Amino acid sequence: MSEIKPAFRSEPTFNVLFLCTGNSARSIIAEAILNRVALGRFRAFSAGSQPKGQVNPRTVELLQGLGYDTSKYRSKSWSEFAAPGAPQMQFVFTVCDDAAGETCPLWPGQPMTAHWGINDPAAATGSAAEVGLAFKEAYRQLSRRIEVFTALPMASLDRLSLQKKLHDIGRMEGATAGAREKA
C-alpha cells in the first residue's frame, strides 16, 4: 500500500504572538483559538510582560469545557520570544490595554502589530456565573477577531492595507477604550 503524502503548501505559515500583562487569560485564550483554527496557515504563541506564572484556573476550565487540550499552555515572559533562536513572528497582537502601553521588546523581522483590547475576564467580580460569563465573552470576542484575521487574503494585501485591516479588527465590537484609541 502506498503512503498518502500531504499536499504541497505554497503559502507560508505565519507565526503570531498574543501579548498581555499576566499571560493567564486573554492571551492564552487567543493562542488556543488560533492554533485550533489555523489550518496550517498560522502558529500561535502567547506571552506576558509580567507573567503570573500559571494559567488562570477559569481559563483552563473554559478551554477544557470547549474541548481544548490545555496541557501545553503556560504563563511565560515575552522575553522568551525576543531571545536568539525564538520563532520569528510575523504578527504581534496585544490583547490588554496595559501591555499595549508598555515598551515591548524589539521583535526580530519587524512583525506587523496591532492592539486588540479585550476586557480582562480575570478581573471580573460577582457570582461564579457572572465571572464565568466574562470568560465566555472574552472567548467570543477573541474568536470573532481571529475569524476575521484568518480570513484576510494575506497574499493579495500590501503591508499598509494589511496593517489597516489589523487595526480595524482591534476596533470591532467589544473593544476596550484603549483599543479604540490606539486603532
Number of strands: 4
Give the H and E element order: EHEHEHEHHH
Shape: globular
Rg calculated over all Cα atoms: 16 Å
Taking the sheet with the most strands, its summary is:
4 strands, parallel
Strand line-up in the sheet with most strands: 2-1-3-4
Task: Report the end-to-end length measured between terminal Cα atoms.
Answer: 55 Å
Mean pLDDT comes to 87
Percent helix:
25-40%
* Low-pLDDT segments: 1-9
Strand content: 5-15%
From the helix content, strand content and strand pairing, which structural class follows? alpha/beta
Give me the number of helical elements.
Answer: 6
What does this structure look like?
- With 183 residues, the chain is α/β, with parallel strands linked by helices.
- 37% of the residues lie in helices and 12% in strands.
- It contains six helices and four strands; from the N terminus they run E-H-E-H-E-H-E-H-H-H.
- Helix 3 links the parallel strand 3 and strand 4.
- The longest helix is centred in the last third of the chain and has 23 residues.
- The chain starts with 13 loop residues before the first strand and ends with a helix.
